[in-house]
Write a structure and sequence with these properties.
Layout lengths: L3 H12 L11 H27 L9 H10 L1 H18 L10 H17 L11
């Protein structure tokens, strides 16, 4: 299993491939794939956070997002819910809708990076209280 940081980095490479890289996927498909990686990173970050704070919360599913407000603060909880919901919507393929815009997913990538720091995830982060 990859770390949240590795998943975010992979999403970044999908959204902004290195110059000269052959691009066989359309920008919309790359954006959708990046959204999946970012949602996985956020889920893993939440698991890591709850393992540190109270391990039983990792078994509860979506309730862990609802309880986040009392442990990590209302701003972090709101950002988590909003970002997770937007990424979840971007992950799902619907025949009657256009794929997510790469610019939208790049904004979500920045938000996930900020949430990783807020949750104390990463090699240079101190554990959250």
């Amino acid at each position: 299993m990859s770390s949240p940081e590795a998943l975010v980095a992979a999403a970044g490479r999908l959204l902004l491939p290195e110059p000269g890289t052959a691009q066989t996927l359309s920008p919309g498909l790359r954006a959708r794939a990046a959204a999946v990686l970012l949602r996985m990173a956020l889920d893993q970050a939440l698991d890591s956070y709850w393992l540190r704070v109270t391990p039983s919360m990792t078994w509860i599913g979506k309730h862990r997002m609802l309880c986040l407000e009392w442990y990590a603060g209302s701003d972090t909880a709101r950002r988590c819910r909003t970002t997770w919901s937007a990424l979840s919507a971007a992950c799902h393929y619907r025949t009657y809708e256009l794929p997510p815009a790469p610019a939208e997913i790049r904004i979500r990538l920045l938000e996930v990076n900020g949430l990783l720091k807020a949750l104390g995830i990463g090699p240079d982060q101190a554990p959250a209280p």
